[in-house]
Amino acid sequence: MTEHVTALAEATQQASPEAPAAHRRKHLVEKARAVVLGVGFPLLLVVLWDRAVAITGTRLVPSPHDVAVMMYDFSFGGIYDDAFSATILTHIWKSMTRVYGGFFLAALIGIPLGLMIGRIKLLRQLLDPTINLLRPIPVTAWLPLSMIFFGLGPNAAIFLVFLGAFYPILLNTIFGVRSVDPRLFEAAAMLGCKGSAMFREVVFPASLPAIFNGLRIAHGFAWILIVVGEMTGVPTGLGSVIMDGRTLSRTDLVVTGMIVIGMCGFITDRIIVVISNRVLSWSPQHHG
Amino acid sequence: MAEGAKRTLLAVRGVTKRFPVGDGEIEALARIDLAIDSGEFVCLIGASGCGKSTLLRIIAGFEEPTTGEVSTHGKPITGPGSDRGMVFQDYALFPWMTVNRNIGFGPRQRGLPRAEIAAIADEFVRLVGLERFADRYPNQLSGGMKQRVAIARVLANDANILLMDEPFGALDALTREQLQRELLQIWARTKVTVVFVTHSVEEAVLLSDRILVMSAGPGRIESDIAIDLPRPRDVSSPEFNAVRRDVARRLTSHLAPRALELAGG
Question: Could you tell me which of B167, B169, B155, B2 has the C-alpha nearest to residue B91?
């Protein structure tokens, strides 16, 4: 691989002496600029935040330093030594069980249902109006009912995450099936593929690019909804940490919880992107 | 071919096709009667809208005829089947499968043992000369290679009738010639029956034993021409050109006779 690149670079060099060096320099400058801008802007926001807190002298909003100290204590303990010290992993773990409980449940129901609705006209006629009626209802509006259905506890949170993740997965799967080239189904049929094999071998893989889009959107919603879900009175989880921070008027704890949720959502989203790039390497529309 | 010792493999009897359009109907095919012998290479030729693709899709089982029936080996067909393999102009390969898995798709559906599937796939990868590309995905292949995969995929499934819907229409001229040669070699080796839709007179004369010239409004078979030129055929020979002129004349004479008269007068 390296040999190829060198050989190619040499070949180009002969053709026009200064071109590759200039090209490489331009590439490096481009990359450096992306990093400086991408990292610089949030740093600038932190500085503005710090100055704004200092100038106004507010005690309602914590300074970046307060939050950094809280983050350290939340992760490793040794500063405040209270109920939140060194508990970060417990809270992350609890939240993840709820986020992924709801997310995988949504995928488990949404994908097969979407494949069938996309492919079977009768099912589409039966379910499409109902889905379109239920979909615009905000997930938060289900909160009171979910507490009646599931009581105070993690199941209500899982249910809310499920609801939020379900529609993007279902609708993207249906869209994926509907937009598959019908010739592929014809080709499969003439090669002797029918019944459930058609779903497994053709409908599902052909819809995968759209399904992954749905999973990624749903996964984002799942992390957003975890705060709402954990308002339902569970003792642990990142959402409950934020709610506790609010009750105790500890805004440094609130902001710390926000940052941890943001980081978890960001990292797991990257993991989904890596997986989908792997799985969809065949797809010409997919350049991740 | 002419002695009639060959068995009729594919019979089209009284097939018509009407499509609903708005409140009315369009008559795509007037009554079509047709018998194709085993091992024959038949070209359907005609202008756009003459129903040649519709007829092919009815034979494939993708569309139902409004009246009449299609039968193979004397048995009426009821839908797509692995005895009739379609090669589409836009390939219709499964983009998430490698070349090897695309070709092994039919045998996999039949539930053959793994080793046998692999052996069949390898055999047909070799038949179309794609050994070096067996593990590539379709979007990494040229149009010509994709069409080779599509042909191999159908043959690997034991199809004895190859239905080809303008299969080389999207290819450049050089690749098209190459694939025409390869298709003839494959046809000679496997003795598969081919029904080939094209709108190129030269392609039809080069490839077929028999050319069916179709005309539109509604679609019907206007003439049925046996091509007795010896193979391999030389497109630059006077005999070839004489046949080509004859077919082209018959084709244009049903195309728009009135328009031609007007232009001529």
Answer: B167
